[in-house]
């Protein structure tokens, strides 16, 4: 499981109430599958790209080896089914945001979809993408919402104290871009839109671990030229997450590639309205009731949304209330029960799962 993201922990805690248990230290290899066949029923994938491609993949031989790795992945999936495992894939995105190659990622998604007994998505927008890219295998899809992050992070320090520490004026309107800093999150689009917007007293706080050197460099350079941009490019521990959102007024998600966004759900859970790209998934989660939606990839549209948000603080407060209400509807007990019933529906004898 990904330790920094509480999503999987929250999901499997709910499934535990129905008798499911995450097996420690699993290894998706034929030897492990053989040894565990009598005590494990499910093989549950979330972000599968590490199983079929090599990191980096810049050299020709690495690309070739990735295809070999994909073939081995298919063999292991076939072995899992032959041994009686139920294979489940929760599709957070149909193809990874940072792609190895179009053909490899397409083949990886089709391979896993083919061998899966059940596909789960969190929203109808992802269903649409899956139907387009997975063809007939998409008929296995069931929609189960992504649960909220309400009460997951401690409240932290007072807003005024955090703002003073970050150099944000108490009356300034603060935008927050939170999460791992990666190129696919449209960092440059956000920087250009913010610096060109007519914002009299606003700041942009960019907080998160830099995972892309180019994107991090662009943020630092923009901050050097514009003091309203506040980079906090580091790992944000759990006890600081909520206080950063509380110190801000609106969360910004500039990426426009669709798929489920944990960052958007986190913002809603912490009562912050969002500026986000107009996509089926984001409209379903937030809509205009809990945020402002701009045309994906359009800097002018993004700039207009930033100006609209900063120009209407009272409206932002109203949308913040709606954001929290949206998050409250994403109940983990209901989601856990729905997921458990789907798992039981596969006809498993032993209620256990592999994370």
Can you give a write-up of this model?
- Helix 1 crosses helix 15 (332-345), helix 8 (187-196) runs parallel beside helix 9 (213-225) and helix 8 (187-196) packs across helix 13.
- Helix content is 46%, strand content 12%.
- The longest helix has 23 residues, at 60-82.
- It folds into two domains: 7-147 and 331-345, Rossmann fold (3-Layer(aba) Sandwich); 159-328, Glycogen Phosphorylase B (Rossmann fold, 3-Layer(aba) Sandwich), CATH 3.40.50.
- The strands form two sheets. A six-stranded parallel sheet has the order 7-6-5-8-9-10, with helices on both faces. Strands 1-2-3-4 form a four-stranded parallel sheet.
- The protein is globular.
- The protein is an alpha/beta fold and 355 residues long.
- 42% of the residues are buried.
- The protein contains 15 helices and ten strands.
List the helices and strands and how they pair.
Elements: H1 7-16, H2 30-35, E1 42-45, H3 49-52, H4 60-82, E2 86-90, H5 102-115, E3 118-121, H6 124-134, E4 141-143, H7 159-166, E5 173-178, H8 187-196, E6 202-207, H9 213-225, E7 229-232, H10 238-246, E8 250-253, H11 262-269, E9 274-277, H12 280-285, E10 291-294, H13 299-310, H14 313-328, H15 332-345
Parallel strand pairs: 1-2, 2-3, 3-4, 5-6, 5-8, 6-7, 8-9, 9-10
């Amino acid at each position: 499981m990904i330790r920094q993201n509480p999503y999987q922990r929250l999901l499997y805690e709910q499934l535990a109430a129905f008798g499911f248990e995450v097996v420690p230290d699993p290894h998706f290899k034929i030897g492990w599958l053989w040894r565990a066949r009598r005590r494990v029923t499910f093989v549950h994938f979330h972000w599968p790209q590490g199983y079929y491609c090599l990191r980096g993949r810049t050299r020709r031989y690495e690309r070739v080896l990735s295809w070999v790795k994909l073939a081995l992945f298919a063999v292991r999936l076939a072995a899992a089914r032959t041994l009686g495992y139920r294979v489940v894939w929760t599709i957070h995105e149909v193809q990874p945001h940072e792609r190895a190659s179009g053909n490899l990622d397409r083949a990886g998604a089709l391979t896993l979809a083919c061998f899966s007994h059940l596909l789960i998505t969190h929203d109808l927008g992802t269903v649409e993408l899956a139907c387009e890219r997975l063809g007939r295998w998409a008929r296995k899809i069931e929609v189960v919402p992504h649960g909220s992050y309400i009460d997951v992070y401690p409240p932290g320090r007072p807003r005024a104290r955090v703002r003073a520490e970050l150099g944000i004026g108490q009356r300034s309107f603060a935008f927050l871009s939170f999460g791992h800093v990666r190129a696919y999150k449209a960092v440059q689009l956000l920087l250009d839109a913010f610096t060109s917007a007519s914002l009299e007293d606003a700041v942009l706080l960019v907080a998160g671990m830099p995972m892309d050197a180019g994107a991090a460099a662009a943020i630092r350079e923009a901050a050097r030229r514009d003091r309203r941009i506040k980079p906090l490019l580091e790992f944000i521990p759990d006890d600081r997450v909520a206080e950063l959102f509380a110190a801000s007024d609106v969360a910004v998600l500039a990426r426009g590639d669709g798929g489920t966004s944990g960052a958007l759900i986190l913002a809603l859970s912490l009562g912050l309205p969002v500026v986000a790209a107009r996509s089926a998934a984001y409209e379903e989660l937030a809509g205009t009731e809990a945020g402002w939606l701009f045309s994906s990839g359009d800097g002018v549209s993004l700039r207009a949304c930033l100006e609209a948000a900063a120009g209407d603080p009272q409206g932002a407060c109203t949308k913040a209330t709606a954001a929290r209400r949206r998050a409250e509807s994403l109940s983990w007990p209901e989601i856990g029960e729905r997921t458990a019933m789907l798992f039981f529906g596969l006809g498993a004898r032993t209620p256990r799962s592999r994370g």
